[in-house]
Specification:
Distance between the termini: 42 Å
Strand content: 15-25%
CATH topology of the largest domain: Dna Ligase, domain 1
Radius of gyration: 25 Å
Order of helices and strands: HEEEEEHHEHEEHEHEHHHHEHEEHE
Number of helices: 12
Strand order of the largest sheet: 4-6-1-5
Number of strands: 14
Structural class: alpha+beta
Largest sheet: 4 strands, mixed
Mean pLDDT: 91
CATH superfamily of the largest domain: DNA polymerase, Y-family, little finger domain
CATH class of the largest domain: Alpha Beta
Shape: globular
Oligomer: single chain
Low-confidence stretches: 370-386, 388-396, 399-404
Length: about 400
DNA sequence: TCTGGGGTCCTAGGACCC
DNA sequence: TCTGGGGTCCTAGGACCC
């Protein structure tokens, strides 16, 4: 989807169309209705505090404003940009709507988050001609039908890349944004893929990009020109092979239509950095709140968790995690709070904190817990000793929160 | 003026088992 | 007199993505 969150907001506030608009920040900048019936919007200029941009309209991007940019930095580039708070419930509604619209045309879909999907077109009627050859015309018509359906259902535009695999489709979908449709065949790879920067490959981020640049590799074509053995020497067997395959446009990954969640988490960044001792009451309350939210998430999704973990980010942005595996899965806030409290004890808390998070992994379905529910004792086979899930004792470190 | 929140996957070392 | 070998689980950190 094109500038998804921002595009959803423009449906709500059509008077903002064409203006630089960014979504992000923490509450407190809802549009205010005016006596004359118009609405007053907050701008980046007025914003102070932490936060990043989650989405910017194309008009805002023209000022150099982009996703993940700090709001204060964005304000320096485009102070007049309208700032709207994120409304995830609304985005999720539109997400379901666009996916349903796609499914009417092509039902084999892999979810890639709120605004992205992979669609399998291979076995669709019309995708191939009678001889089994690719009929680009047929595939183009199907993609066009998908776009029309999405627009009819949501009023939103999307960009589609139609290619032999997921690697190329992801790249192709970004070549003609917004509202684009790009077809690429294997024969097009040298002309259309090789000139692109290696960073366009999904999976090459800042670190791998910099490492490749240091080796004199800027484009995908330059990557393709490097011997496989050289890439393996620099990046290891696994990543080296993968880079070589990517550079040549090869990707065998299937479209995966179903997957179980691996973890569920909640985290929050504070308005100001907090200290374990000086802000103990505040931190304790936040900590308990996160555990309660996590427990609610687990219950709603129907999971219990055997491994509870915490995440801390210090004022110097250093991040540490600690986790703890229990013999029995838990889901209630008190047990999560207790186990997370045990984890917290293992961290040096002399620095101020900017972020606190709680995570549940080792998920099992709440109703049929493997082993335990089937009457097997939780057999312990290797690894560090797992502890019994205990009833919560006194709150551990961020003590002094109002008792739950 | 520092840098959100929710995820996945990978690596590497240690513990432990057969 | 070494220090096997293969496997799983757990933990911590990091890269990356939406």
């Amino acid at each position: 989807m094109d500038a998804f969150y921002a595009s959803v907001e423009l449906l709500r506030y059509p008077e903002l169309k064409g203006l630089p608009v960014v979504i992000g920040g923490r509450r407190r900048h809802q549009p205010q209705p005016q006596p004359d019936g118009s609405r007053r919007f907050a701008t980046l200029r007025e914003y102070t505090g932490r936060g990043v941009i989650t989405t910017a309209t194309y008009a805002a991007r023209a000022f150099g404003v982009n996703s993940a940019m700090g709001l204060m930095k964005a304000a320096a580039l485009c102070p007049q940009a309208v700032l709207l708070p994120a409304d995830f419930d609304e985005y999720r509604r539109y997400s379901r709507a666009f996916k349903a619209a796609v499914a009417e045309v092509a039902p084999v879909i892999e979810d890639r988050g709120i605004d992205e999907i992979y669609i399998e077109l291979t076995d669709l009627p019309g995708a191939q001609d009678a001889l089994g050859h690719d009929a680009c015309g047929g595939v183009r018509a199907i993609a066009q039908e998908i776009r029309n359906n999405v627009r009819r259902a949501t009023g939103l535009t999307c960009s589609i890349g139609v290619t032999p695999n997921k690697l190329l489709s992801k790249i192709a979908s970004e070549l003609d944004k917004p509202d684009g449709l790009t077809l690429i065949t294997e024969d097009d790879i040298p002309a259309r893929i090789w000139p692109l920067a290696v960073r366009r490959i999904n999976g090459i981020g800042p670190k791998a990009g910099a490492k490749l640049a240091a080796l004199g590799v800027e484009t995908i074509g330059e990557l393709a020109a490097r011997p496989r053995e050289e890439l393996i020497a620099h990046f290891g067997r696994s990543q080296g092979r993968w880079l070589h395959e990517c550079a040549n446009g090869r990707d065998e990954r299937p479209v995966v239509t179903y997957s179980e969640p691996v973890s569920v988490s909640r985290e929050t960044t504070f308005e100001r950095d907090l200290h374990a001792v000086a802000d103990r009451a505040t931190l304790g309350a936040v900590f308990t709140g996160l555990c309660e939210q996590l427990a609610g998430d687990l219950r709603r999704k129907g999971y219990r968790s055997r491994t509870i973990g915490i995440k801390l980010r210090f004022d110097d942005f250093r991040t540490v995690t600690r986790d703890h595996t229990l013999a029995q899965p838990v889901a209630d806030a008190a047990a999560i709070r207790h186990t997370a409290g045990q984890c917290l004890k293992r961290v040096d808390l002399s620095r101020r904190l900017r972020l606190l998070g709680v995570r549940a992994s080792g998920l099992v379905h709440a109703r049929q817990e493997a082993g335990a529910a089937c009457g097997h004792p939780a057999v312990h086979r290797g690894g560090a000793p797992a502890e019994e899930a205990r009833a919560p004792a006194a709150p551990q470190l961020f003590d002094g929160e109002p008792s739950a």
